[in-house]
Specification:
disordered N terminus; two-stranded antiparallel sheet
Length: about 280
């Protein structure tokens, strides 16, 4: 390999050295997007009660961000459910502002309710359904009929081999329905002990072997705050440290509150891979 000098422009470096990189694609309406480096997915919460207070009704800086995930119902521990009608109302009320800020970034809706997905699709364009529940037949059918990408989350507390079996069965169910774009999320923080979260993180390469893009959501979560005695407000450094580890283990999308720090983590990761001689 012909290695560039360290002072070469970053974009020029990683665009020219891609022969060993995982490539994956995503349909967004008439666009077919191809990716060869990890992406940042910005979190936008149209809720009054997200676990991280600073993210409530806040659009983070989107420079360098490829995706924006919009949710309208909190899933934090102890949250109160809102009706599907209220969730959809919040999404419809805030969607235009988020879409305008997002520009060319791919839009994702964070919901586990098929009726919310269908209601939003009647009014607005988006590419991804981010479903933390692991899905249902109705949600799988909805993703297929609307031709949306689907984030398949592991919401249970089993070990890595159990997660792999879970993914295998549901990937088959989605593929049989014609869902072409499937992303995998280990579901950090959902139904898992602190120890299980770290066991799954340490073994993320097992998920990489499936060959589908991997979405990671650890930003300021309790697996960090509980381990280190932090609060969500003081967990940015820990988040970035875990992001760096998970990028090395095969993460393709970082779902984050803090976009600039995640973009920088990916750039450093890509530079290290570019100059690795073995």
């Amino acid at each position: 390999m012909d290695y560039k000098q360290p002072n070469a422009p970053f974009a020029e470096i990683f665009m020219e050295h891609t022969e060993n990189k995982k490539t994956w694609s995503l349909r967004d309406g008439e666009r077919l997007l191809s990716y060869q480096q990890p992406q940042v997915m910005a979190i936008v919460n149209l809720t009054p009660d997200s676990f991280f207070a600073a993210s409530r009704h806040h659009i983070p800086p989107l420079e360098g961000v490829g995706m924006v995930d919009v949710g309208a119902m909190s899933t934090r521990p102890g949250h109160e459910d809102v009706s599907a009608d209220e969730e959809l109302r919040r999404l419809l009320e805030g969607w235009d502002e988020v879409a305008a800020a997002a520009g060319d970034a791919v839009l994702s809706v964070d919901t586990f309710r098929p009726e919310v997905v269908r209601g939003l699709a009647e009014k607005h364009r988006f590419a991804i359904i981010n479903d933390i529940s692991g899905g249902s037949e109705e949600m799988y059918d909805t993703a297929a009929s609307l031709q949306k990408a689907y984030v398949l989350t592991y919401p249970e507390g089993g070990a890595t081999d159990e997660m792999m079996m879970y993914f295998s069965k549901r990937i088959d169910a989605l593929a049989r329905r014609g869902v072409c774009d499937i992303l995998l999320d280990p579901g950090f923080g959902f139904g898992k002990t602190l120890e299980r979260n770290y066991e799954l993180a340490a073994n993320l390469k097992a998920v990489q072997e499936i060959g589908l893009p991997i979405l990671i959501g650890v930003s300021r979560k309790s697996m960090l705050t509980r381990a280190l005695g932090l609060t969500p407000e003081t967990a940015l450094n820990a988040t970035t440290a875990l992001h760096a580890f998970l990028l090395e283990r095969g993460a393709d999308i970082l779902r984050v509150h803090d976009t600039r720090e995640a973009v920088e983590a990916i750039k450093i990761h890509e530079l290290l891979n570019t100059y690795a001689h073995v």
